[in-house]
Amino acid sequence: MNFTFDTVANLIFETGAANRLGDIIKNRMQRPCIVTDKGVIGAGLIGDALASLKKAGLDYFLFDGVEADPPAKVVRNAVTAAKDHGSDGVIGFGGGSSMDTAKVIAVLLNSAQSLDEIYGTNMVRGDRAPLVLLPTTAGTGSEVTNISIITSDDDLKMGIVAPQLYADVAILDAALTLSMPRHVTSATGIDAMVHAIEAFTNKLYKNPISDALATKALALLSRNIQHACDEPGDTKAREAMLLGALLAGQAFSNSPCAAVHAMAYPLGVHFHVPHGLANSLMLAPVLRHNMPVAERLYAELGPVIGTAQNANAFLEKMLSICAATGVTNRLSDVGVSHNVLPKLAEDAIKVERLMKCNPREVTYDDALRLYTEVL
Ligand SMILES: NC(=O)c1ccc[n+]([C@@H]2O[C@H](COP(=O)([O-])OP(=O)(O)OC[C@H]3O[C@@H](n4cnc5c(N)ncnc54)[C@H](O)[C@@H]3O)[C@@H](O)[C@H]2O)c1
Ligand SMILES: [Fe+2]
Questions:
Q1: Quick one: 280 and 339 in the same domain?
Q2: HSE on the CB side for 158, CA within 13 Å?
């Protein structure tokens, strides 16, 4: 059995830690660029962290222009703004979109490479600027992955995968996640569960450490997602979700996602379906497609989420967990119509980085059939 496993070296899991951000980072950077979006600002999450930066004497620059599924154009603007400020480090503060943007800024800040040159696996050359990440969703796990997902100029969700994308420090403060509205809690929580499932069933990179992390993650997430939706102010449930998302992130960073994600991506690009909701929509058809080859592994996950050791019981329980959070299971509810399915299928099979990891091959015809199943 051969495998490698990498993760972020320094994790701080502490509710309230964002209030002492300045102290935590002051030996790493003096002029941080802090990267976020308007939703995070509007939720009032960043004020105390900014005050702590000021108190620590750090001359920060706030970039709050991140957009969901970050478009390349926005990322380039952010890099230029950080260079203009003379930033010497980057702090990602927000959901996956903000953290993914921060990662790319850190890589390009002192680099001669352009964004287009770093798409793909191991295309980044040289060192990056210091990088600290604080998730406010639970979540993408981006705080501990070597991945950034950017929407390219020709409307494809492109992965940038490189060891330089592992942050120096990830700060996990559950207080930052209390303000997530129900639809964000459910979508991001389901995203994290899909990370765990796809890591556990990866055809090429499945490994015992990712397996242990994925099963622990799935247990935490499945037991707490409903409660986090119903009682958004419950810090214990929020901590469990944040921990689950973190562990799932460590798992899939080393045993990547597969067809659920590949088929979710075009829904984000063409219909602006939030990433987690898109995964939720594609979960059932892809799991059913994989069943003939992944039945034993899905069965193993049954008891992890509190049902029988049986693949169908696992699938049914997953669907009932998703449904109970209030998400739809129909593409037509998010604006998708029959005539666009060929374009979605075409784009999905282009995501070879993920498709090759799926337990069972997904052809163009399969992809078209799977989208049609949930129209
Ligand atoms: N790099 C990775 O490893 C990785 C993994 C999975 C997904 N992703 C990417 O991450 C992105 C999705 O990230 P996401 O699901 O975290 O969503 P997001 O970052 O796009 O945020 C979704 C919305 O929630 C708001 N929000 C975030 N935190 C909040 C809070 N605490 N309170 C209130 N509102 C809050 C944001 O303002 C935004 O409007 C996608 O682009 C996806 O492809 C990356
Ligand atoms: Fe995801």
A1: yes
A2: 21
| CA 264 to centroid of ligand 2, rounded, Å | 9
Q: Which amino acid is at 91?
A: I
pLDDT in tens, 74-94: 999 999 999 999 999 999 999
3-state secondary structure of 43: coil
144 close to ligand 1 (CB < 6 Angstrom):
no
Mean pLDDT to the nearest integer, 169-185: 98
Q: What are the tokens at 355?
A: 């498709």
Contact yes or no for 12/172 (Cβ under 8 A): yes
Question: What distance in angstroms lies between residue 354's CA and the mean position of ligand 2's atoms?
Answer: 11
Residues 117-162 have pLDDT tens digits of 999 999 999 999 999 999 999 999 999 999 999 999 998 889 999 9
d(CA 279, CA 262): 9
pLDDT digits (tens, 9 = 90+) for 214-234: 999 999 999 999 999 999 999
* Residue 158 to residue 147: CA distance in whole angstroms: 10
Q: Does the C-beta of 280 come closer than 6 Å to ligand 1?
A: no
Report how far ligand 2's centroid is from the alpha carbon of 374 (Å): 19
The reply to whether 141 and 203 lie within a common domain is no
Q: How far is the CA of 22 from the centre of ligand 2 (A)?
A: 30
Taken as a whole, the chain contains a residue count of: 375
The count of domains in the chain is: 2
Range of the domain at 23: 10-176
Residue nearest atom 18 of ligand 1, based on CA coordinates: 95
Say if CB 166 and CB 8 are below 8 A apart. yes
